[in-house]
């Protein structure tokens, strides 16, 4: 039995949501060609199953109740070992895994031909998107503080997007031809909801694009300055924890951040002009590392170079958002929350109905 396992380990904000959803939509068609995206009866959506498995491998427990990820990695690897052909496992939190966890993953996948797929994006686009994502998940830090920590290599996001470090760890015991780096094309090259990026992923996984014709309708769009600042202030008011409170997550992250506030006309979050020199320096380090590593690069390494905005373009500081746009975003959020509250059943009324139903049953006996 021949089994080739492609571990897509990120990085964050490089089209992973789009990739995972497209793989899920086309899972049955792909399986007809011996390409498998493992899932389970408990987590019918592959991305959620892979997320739990990655948490379990890394010994982490955020994003749900305590112990919610226990046993998921072992379950995933058992499923992988029962398959033949190509198997795809994808989640971005795998990127910064320490060497000990990578060694465990490789040991648990022994008997398979393992390939590592890593998607990379220039920092001018990636860092604003990463900060917004951290705010959606409950963080309260300012953009400036986030960038300061990134430049010192401290937060999880930087460890996940530090291309040489990630690939040196994951590729330590693999030949370079089994390491595939997919560069995210600039927006000006994108068409058909990321079709070019999808074609690059198909090349990395060794699959024919015609096997997965259904396109994803999911998107993970960016928030503007006002909307991000609103969510950040709301996190602070609620003392919201990072991806640990499911009720708040559904309301703030899913309802507000990803559904109601993304379609507003707003000034986008951009990398400050003063940070471009550092971002360009990192890009040169990455491109030089790729050139000397012998790994398989799909796309253009120049995609990793930040593109400076026009000199006459004014930069808006996300940490000093104007009050009026934030207020307008807050009113839209309040309207959405009010509609959601009105749509949901009244707990007191539900309790009263249950009592009356119980009394009616007793009378009929």
Shape: globular
Count of individual beta strands: 6
**Mean pLDDT over the full residue set:** 89
Residue runs with pLDDT of under 50 for 5 or more positions: none
What's the number of helices?
15
H-E order: EHHEHHEHEHHHHEHHHHEHH
Helical content stands at 40-55%
Radius of gyration: 22 Å
What distance lies between the first and last C-alpha atoms, to the nearest angstrom?
A: 63 Å
Placed side by side, the strands forming the largest sheet appear as 2-3-1-4-5-6
Judged by helices, strands and strand pairing, the structural class is alpha/beta
Could you tell me the strand content as a percent range? 5-15%
User: Describe the biggest sheet?
Assistant: 6 strands, parallel
Overview of the molecule:
This protein is 50% helix and 8% strand. It is of the alpha/beta class. Helix 3 (46-58) packs across helix 4 and helix 11 (225-238) packs across helix 14. It starts with a strand and ends with a helix.
């Amino acid at each position: 039995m021949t089994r080739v396992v492609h571990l897509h380990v990120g990085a964050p904000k490089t089209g992973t949501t789009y990739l995972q959803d497209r793989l899920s939509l086309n899972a049955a068609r792909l399986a007809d060609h011996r390409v498998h995206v493992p899932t389970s009866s408990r987590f019918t959506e592959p991305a959620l199953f892979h997320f739990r498995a990655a948490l379990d491998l890394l010994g982490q427990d955020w994003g749900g109740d305590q112990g919610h990820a226990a046993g998921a990695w072992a379950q995933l690897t058992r499923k992988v070992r029962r398959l033949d052909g190509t198997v795809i496992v994808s989640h971005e939190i795998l990127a910064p895994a320490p060497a000990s966890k990578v060694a465990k993953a490789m040991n648990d996948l022994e008997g398979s031909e393992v390939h590592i797929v890593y998607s990379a994006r220039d920092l001018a686009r990636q860092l604003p998107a990463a900060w917004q994502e951290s705010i959606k998940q409950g963080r309260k830090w300012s953009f400036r503080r986030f960038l300061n920590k990134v430049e010192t290599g401290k937060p999880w996001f930087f460890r996940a997007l530090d291309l040489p470090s990630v690939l040196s760890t994951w590729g330590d015991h693999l030949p370079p031809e089994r390491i595939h780096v997919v560069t995210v094309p600039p927006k000006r090259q994108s068409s058909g909801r990321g079709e070019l990026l999808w074609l690059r992923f198909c090349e990395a996984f060794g699959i024919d694009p015609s096997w997965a014709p259904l396109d994803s309708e999911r998107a993970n769009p960016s928030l503007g300055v006002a909307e991000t600042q609103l969510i950040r202030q709301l996190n602070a008011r609620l003392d919201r924890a990072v991806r640990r409170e499911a009720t708040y997550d559904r309301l703030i992250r899913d309802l507000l951040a990803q559904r109601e506030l993304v379609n507003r006309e707003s000034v986008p979050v951009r990398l400050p002009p003063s940070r471009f020199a550092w971002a360009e320096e990192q890009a040169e380090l990455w491109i030089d590392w790729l050139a000397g590593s012998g790994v398989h690069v799909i796309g253009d390494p120049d995609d990793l170079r930040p593109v400076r905005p026009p000199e006459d373009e004014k930069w808006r500081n996300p940490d000093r958002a104007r009050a009026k746009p934030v207020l307008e975003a807050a009113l839209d959020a309040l309207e959405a929350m009010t509609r959601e509250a009105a749509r949901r059943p009244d707990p007191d009324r539900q309790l009263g109905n249950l009592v009356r139903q119980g009394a009616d049953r007793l009378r009929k006996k």
